[in-house]
Automatic annotation (TrEMBL):
The gene is polA. Residues 300-329 are annotated as: Disordered. Residues 300-328 have a biased composition (Polar residues). Signal peptide: none annotated. This is DNA polymerase I. The lineage of its organism: Bacteria, Pseudomonadati, Bacteroidota, Flavobacteriia, Flavobacteriales. It comes from the Bacteria. It comes from Xanthomarina spongicola. GO terms for molecular function: 3'-5' exonuclease activity; 5'-3' exonuclease activity; DNA binding; DNA-directed DNA polymerase activity.
Amino acid sequence: MSEQKRLFLVDAYALIFRGYYAFIKNPRINSKGLDTSAIMGFMNSLLDVIKRERPDHLAVCFDKGGSVDRVEMFSEYKANRDATPEAIKIAVPYICEILKAMHIPIMVKEGYEADDVIGTLAKKAEIEGYKTFMVTPDKDFAQLVSDNIFMYRPVFGGGYETWGIPEVQKKFEVERPEQVIDFLGMMGDSSDNIPGLPGVGEKTAKKFLAAYGSMENLLANTHELKGKMREKVEASKELGMLSKQLATIMLDVPVEFDEKDFEMSEPDIEAVTHLFQELEFRRLIDNFLKTFTSEDTAASNELSDASKADNTPKTTAKEQISAGSGQFSLFGGEPSSVSKLETVSEYTRKTAETSSHFYQSVASGMATKLFIKNLMNQTSVCFDTETTGLNPLTAELVGIAFSWEVGKGFYLPFPENKDAAQELIEQLRSFFEAEHIEKIGQNLKYDIKVLRKYNIKVKGKLFDTMLAHYLINPDMRHNMDVLAETYLNYTPISITELIGKKGKNQLSMRDVPLEKQTEYAVEDTDITLQLKEHFTKELSEANTQKLFDEIEIPLLRVLADMELEGINLDTEFLNSLSVELNNDIANLEKKIYEAAGEEFNIASPKQMGIILFEKLKLIDKPKKTKTGQYATGEDILSYLAKDHEIIRNILDYRGLAKLKSTYVDALPLQVEPSTGRVHTDYMQTVAATGRLSSNNPNLQNIPIRTERGRQVRKAFIPRNEDYTLLAADYSQIELRIIAALSEEENMIQAFNNGEDIHASTASKVFNVPLNEVTREQRSNAKTVNFGIIYGVSAFGLSNQTDLSRTEAKELIDTYYTTYPKLRNYISKQIDFARDHGYVQTVLGRRRYLKDINSRNAVVRGAAERNAINAPIQGSAADIIKIAMINIHNKLVTNNYKTKMLLQVHDELVFDVYKPELETIKTLVKTEMEKAFKLKVPLDVDLDVGDNWLEAH
DNA sequence: CACATGTGCAA
DNA sequence: TATTGCACATGTG
């Protein structure tokens, strides 16, 4: 390399946005409630660039006031952008201050975009003999690439790629980088709202460029094009030229390139550290100090690259096992041993600091029996099963990892031979079934289900880190990688690193070399063990220990049983339903095509919108979705249904197509061949309110409201003729909870009297005797009752009913006059949330509401609705969870043949052994009604039938 | 093949 | 401009 001077120009907003969205699932919020995601993301990238490249000249470029020229050319330019997120607006002043303290120049010119500033500076620097690197992910910059100007582009998953002329040529299939402008002009750019040529996407644009070289040349030769494409392009010549102009980065921004202004100099370390401290960026301080004080960073880069190369010969687990099955391998050993262990030794050092346990080497090749003897002496052990797949019904054990001391662990590989594997697991039976040994794990439901297939029941106290974290902060994600990063500041080996992305080439865990299996599996148990320490403390600080030990942990075993049990499905019935639907759908399709005058894809909202609103012009001012398409949702179309047969047919078509694809055809495919039943997976840590969710398949949204839809329920049947289905559901549990918590006497009375609550509400609100309430009145009252639970507005209510906005508002006012304490309760909840930052359920399940004091009314409003809804929905979830645990206990201890199969938020479904029916009916009703004592009685309806529809 | 979008099913 | 979810088909990269 020459000694050519190097200038780095950073596209600030691009990196800020990128940083912000990188944290979107788990925003970084500091103790003052400030969302620091954008600042942290940006600073991480900036330091990363400095550390890697050691630029001698550097500047950060911002936009200010948007591009005056482009908006003048095209008023819609960037008009489709969502409002900048609050966290980013807040971030900018902080970032500027940090840059000042770092003595890094900030370049900004009112009325110009950063692109233009960067472009102009890069060209000027080129004249001065610089090599310029434009630090941005934005591909538009490719147009500026030359022999001396490069893109330095962060890539997903870390690292950077440098785009010079060859890269741009390859990427865009152009000869010269300037042609990128033509390329963008032709295909448009939806993020900047550059229109482009209609019907031209990436593929066509590349084709045109290869043939014509430029937009101008294409437009001059449109006669060579064919058919529809010719028409469209010829009609859009102006649009094409405009698009090209919009995509062109300007090179005449009035800024000077004075090289000494751009020279890197020593940062004001104290000022930067102070700012980082204020923002609570502990890791960044370390990172910053390392970047600016360490002598040789290039060396460490080489090391990290070099460590990626893995030249160790691969020994597969299979080979190891055949060499001596039943041996376990060790995680650990002296760090001096092999270079490959470098990452491991570093990791152990880190944990050693906080745990006082140091890395220990243990003799390898210890006999399994000796290991188990050791295991049985522990009081608390973390374990994790490694298996051949994700389906616990078919997954085979590949190995099990164990840890009981931080920084140490063991891995026991399993033989592929089934008898041999069973023999090995038998040796561990005493451990898993030991009541006195606490078992720790991450997502134990999975491990418990896998082991159950080997006829092993996991007994003793449990601690599940995923469940613990769910109670600590239900709104976050709870996978182990995130938890390790958040709480231990450590990035574990990812499963993708081990077995690759899913697809044809994905490996099975069995194909991973034993050494890697060990490292990965034991790392997980080690981390889980450490997380437990954290979470135990946090659970007790939040007063949720009891909820954890008495609800979520016991429920985990209940759910494991329900999932393993599965439910019987009448697939023949569904298949015949599918044939019927097919006929009806085909008939509707024909009618719709006739009315539309052409064939199109009815399932495509895009095509449908164009047909309805451009071709048939059914409305003057069609509503559009946020992406600019016509909205064709049910709520919109149903207004038009009475005037247009095509709309009625479309609505019918959609209903039937949905039914067929989502339920009738999909469910039979979900029958597990090994059991002949459908096994859903209940997610215990997904819903922020404490509810369960159901997946693969979702059995919590089986249709019931329409006649056609509810037929699907006929397919859910008892296991055989000796059994019948029992459905038990809480009547109005959420309204009972809000009545009880608010102590609203008028509503409590109605429940005490066993009245129909919606009719009762209607009678009070519309001031008519109970027996004279009309259907419409009851229906409106019902809507308000539900609306209250969700935090309704007059607008929302009028949307859901036939009422006008004014009428809706009046109704809400009268409602609150009728139930005055309800309004009180609502404001008390909001106040509580403002003061404490969270709300809670009857069992103390918390939901944190960081936006409750936001200055943005929309954001705050959403938080306020959550403050009302979360305790209600969550308390209902708490209550049914108690009932499930108690019912399950009784079913098991009394050896009933009856099994609990499904939970649908306020309903439980059982496969009842007919001779037990009367006993079970009483048992279920009693346990559900006494699960939690409120100031309002709980009421449970029971129904029995030979399928799920009859049981309603 | 992965992801976003629009739509629609349940409590 | 109503809460919590999951999943389908289409369209795009």
